[in-house]
Amino acid sequence: MDIWKKILEKLENGLDVMLLVVIDNHGSSSGKPGFKMAVCQDGSMYGTIGGGPPEFNLSRMAQEKLGKRERSIFLKHQVHKADAEANRSGLICSGEQWVALYPLTAGDTEHIKQIAGAHNSNQSGVIEFSEKGIHFKAGESYIFGAGHVGFSLSRLMNQLGFHVRLFDDRQDLALMRDNPYANHKQTVDYKDIVNLVPDGENVYVVIMTFAHKSDEIVLRQLISKKIKYLGMMGSDRKVAQIFKNLAEEGVEANLLEKIDAPVGLPIGSQTAEEIAVSIAAK
Questions:
Q1: DSSP secondary structure code for residue 75 in this structure
Q2: In this predicted structure, what is the pLDDT of residue 85?
Q3: Does residue 199 contact residue 227 with C-beta atoms inside 8 Å?
Q4: Non-local CB neighbours of 67 within 8 Å, separated by 6+ positions
Q5: DSSP assigned state of 106
Q6: Which of 234, 222, 229 is CA-nearest to residue 275?
Q7: Contact, 78 vs 37, CB < 8 A?
Q8: Do residues 126 and 137 touch, judged by C-beta distance below 8 A?
Q9: 49 within 8 A of 76, measured Cβ to Cβ
Q10: What pLDDT does 211 receive?
């Protein structure tokens, strides 16, 4: 059962929904972080936050809040002990859990539509639950260099659910033209790529162009981006030289330190497939 699809259906039909999410737990608790349950204005319910008395009591609370059309986010602490002085859940398994109740209305439809769409297409991303509400950040992998390693990395990142964007400056490159794993393929001028990569907490970039000079050109444009991951393939010697060049140009040390170079985990990789595994693992 796709809980996001159900929530979307309700919102599009003009019904409010209360989404219950287990955001933390300690000890023995039936509800684990990430467990979700939707309580809808028409009385229907989907998903679970662990079952039993805690779920029953919180679903009733959610229905009451929906009936009063309350719009504030509510956090409920539940203690699974019979002798608990406060927040007793009705269970006696000695654990604790914290459940957030998020009211969803028509104004949240676009956010839920993004989540449902990503779930349906197996696209990875991060669902952020905060005091501001629910937001979705799609996982995007930007690969500069469509050679053999770029091909293997495209395949692996695609299998991991990322939206893969592949770039190269070589015209009619067979490895890019015949790459079925990239969601987006584009021939570019490496001197003008800064606007191709947005800032974002779920944006991952790997630089592996045909030559170290073009690697440096791409890196220079992206080093100040506020992104989750920036890696560059190359030998220790090549990386050291590029870093030296950038430092001499005034690039601050803290920006250089955030670059994963040589890229990936040190697993002794030699083949394109092994290098792709090391990068995906990192």
A1: E
A2: 67
A3: yes
A4: none
A5: G
A6: 234
A7: no
A8: yes
A9: no
A10: 92
